[in-house]
Fold:
Amino acid sequence: MEIYMIFRYSSLRINLQDIGTAYIFFFIRKDSLSDIIQLRRGTEKRMSEKKAIICIHYAFYVVSVFLHLIQRNNRASNLSFICKGGILMSTTENRGQFGSKLGFILSAAGSAVGLGNIWKFPGKAYNCGGGAFLLVYIIMVALIGTTVMMAEFTVGRNAHKNALGSFRAISQKWGFAGGLGVLTGFIILCYYCQVGGWAMKYIVAYIVDVKTIWADPTAYFLNNLLGADGTFPLQGAVIFPFIFLFLTAYIISHGTAGIEKMSKLLMPLLFIMLIALMIRSCTLPGADDGLKYMLNVDFSTINGVAILTALGQAFFSLSLGMGVMMTYASYLSNEDNLISNTGIVCVLDTLVALFAGFMIIPAVFATGIDPGMGGGFAFATLAGVFEAIPGGTLFGLLFYFLLFFAAVTSSTSIMEGTIAFLIEEKGLKRNHALLGTSVVVFIIGVFYTLSQVYMNIKGIWVSKNGIEYPIFGDFLEYLTDRLLLPLGAFFTTVFVGWIWGTDNSVEEATSYGKFKFTLAPVYKFIVKILDPIAIGVIIIAGLVFGMSIS
Structure:
């Protein structure tokens, strides 16, 4: 069968063999145009440049239409190719997909709901004005958090690949941005698994040894977890982090099905525990002052630092900038509504932060303990809070289960980003990728904990004060929080806003017109203009002024 095409200056006779050969060489082997011109190597027969271009075009068109027709009749199946807006892209047949909208939402919310929501947000709310800060924070989530998240969702689902593959599928030159996200997530995973192990240690301790904790909460944390007394912190650096890491890897070994089952179980439990703890805290004697503080809106307490803190919290609490949301979105079908999914995930994450604030601040006012942030506050200071309230053993146990759930739902998402990269870009099998990743993560994580007080391990950092040598644990956090995370998000917004284009992002978000997106013009403006500026401010605040706003 031959096809005749009449062009402006000449006619070309193109047969289906030419089209098929051009498709194989250009789309599968990725040969250059000059190679395709000499398709039949070893012979004198050549293909003209014009004919080669036409063959490539029609190979692209014919196969795209053909696969689109197949896909219309096989919505539930995992095809090896997808056709979107006339563009042909390959996917992995056994790549996996979220089984339901609820599964994806809970998994993405679990990724976003991390330790920062629980042990950092309340301290920031207390120090930055209470109720007024809450309003500023919600505004920042609505403006910055949702738009950056949707940008990541659209890039990920567009290509149905890992973070690096998603960028590269759109532009070969921008693969580095996805690679940066994978690297960032990997580094975060190294110390996240350590902290998750600490939460597991405290769960066990509150069951069998709570009196020892309450005898001296600070000493218990420093000695048993960090080795401040000179004894190697076997439980805090090795045993419990290893158990936590093993659990994370086990969940990931089952792919998206494992993530979805875990999220459907743990996320409802997390909300139940959080609400129970919040109610108990708000009913403590003396908690009224804390409630009034959190509900009183006094904008005179809002200054530049408070606004920047709200911006940082909104950004860092949503798992943005490390390709995790891209990877999760890549497991969605083309029929899923990214617009509503983005809104629901951001609302759930914000609710957890607000509930945590109303859990911690009233208890702090009731017991007279100064609020803080971070691991020391969660594992040392709050132990004193639980000791001072009736039923403290039970509520302390619930709190550390809460930390554990928040940690494991985040660690699984972070690890999946790395594993998806190794499988799709390096050709590793899932179990092999898990084993190699887990070994390296565990080794680096051990040194993270040991560097806190047990060993003098330093990193190097450059700030406005010159060259500094923070402990290795702080160095890892500086590297990710002050540089890599915001830099990854900055590249994402620039890419979506100016390289790929917000029109393409909106088309992906609406599934090419299937869903209505009333605020699309607002989204386009924010992604192109406001998001890069806001994230640039975060980078400057961290690198130049050394502010810790994560």
In short: The longest strand covers residues 2-6. Residues 1-14, 39-45, 67-93 have pLDDT under 50 and may be disordered.
